[in-house]
Amino acid sequence: MSHKSNSLKQLALQKFKKNFWGVFSFYFIVLVGVVSVFAYAFAPDNSQYANQMHLAIHSKKPGFSVKMLTIPSHIKSKQSGFENLFFGKQNTDTEIPISEYRITANQLTYKEYASDGLEGTEKSLSLEVFQNNNPEPFIAEKTFLFGTDKYGRDLLSRVLVGARISFFIGFVAVFISLIIGIFMGSIAGYFGGKIDAVIMWIINVTWSIPTLLLVIAITLALGKGFWQVFIAVGLTMWVEVARVVRGQIISVKEMQYVTAARALGFNNFRIITKHILPNIMAPVIVISAANFAAAILIESGLSFLGIGAQPPMASWGAMIKDHYNYIILGKPYLALIPGFCIMSLVMAFMLIGNALRDALDVKN
Questions:
Q1: What angle separates helix 2-17 from helix 20-37, to the nearest 10 degrees?
Q2: What are the UniProt keywords, alphabetically (predicted)?
Q3: Which residues are registered as beta bridge partners of 143?
Q4: Structural domain boundaries in the chain
Q5: Class assignment of domain 2-34+156-360?
Q6: How does pLDDT run across 142-164, given as a tens digit for each residue?
Q7: DSSP strand pairing (139-144 vs 64-71)
Q8: What is the mean predicted confidence (pLDDT) over 6-28?
Q9: Are 299 and 308 in contact (CB under 8 A)?
Q10: Is the terminal CB of the chain with fewer CB neighbours within 10 Å at N or C?
Q11: Is residue 316 scored above 70 in pLDDT?
């Protein structure tokens, strides 16, 4: 029996490997996952939430470069290397975009950057604020590959850090939906009768409420925030899992291996968890992939409405909300770049879901 199970797994894996778009989507999702976890290691702006603002250079086009003067702060950060890597650096230094500068005997004179042909303000700074009285290491050319947003923040860094919310909400929401959905569906399908009727009533009531409206209600009840959105999305997605699990258990609970397990005296918990669930997980895996994509879209919609991840957190949906009006102002990339990121990730999950469906289909 074990040999047969292993051979079926090998067969499904071979079928999956032959699906180009499935394999491509898998590696793309892995890449996004790595970027999400180590976002601050890849982001040019590694401050917390990539929130370093420079209003003088707001809404600049991709590839924009400017000289950046960093004025060091004497306040020492108490963050560890682990916190810097995974939660961003608490940046106490002051960054100023400048157009030109000159160094005299005891001071640095610089002209602040000003766009649209305007003249920037000229200011002076004592050299004593710099290490070894040398300001040169603190002036560097900075390039914004994706340009800057309306607050002058690095758009590339915001996109990379924003991937974390969109990616991890899929994991948390699907995890919550699997726990509740498998539990409710298993009980309803296995025991039937009044238990099934009550659970199906709960499922139908939950199903009848528009998903976005239900998420908004749960979010308002739990409060606005990062984890509240994750929980709210997860609590709305379990009904699909429960219906699939219930239908699968109803179709297999009278099969010979289940009858044999009952005859051997196994309790109901063991029969469900050890014998039935492992044999019906294929459609649950497929629907989980679709739920990943749905969770990303719901979170983006909530952030667009302003009740998702709250500022200064970076979120792809919130980035579209902040810049959608720039589409008609000649700078559509500010909204299109995060929109393309959402589309790519959702498409990857849908393609891998289709590939898993084909690979796990025993009829093919």
A1: 90
A2: Cell membrane, Membrane, Transmembrane, Transmembrane helix, Transport
A3: 65
A4: 2-34+156-360, 54-148
A5: mainly alpha
A6: 999 999 999 999 999 999 999 99
A7: antiparallel
A8: 87
A9: yes
A10: N
A11: yes
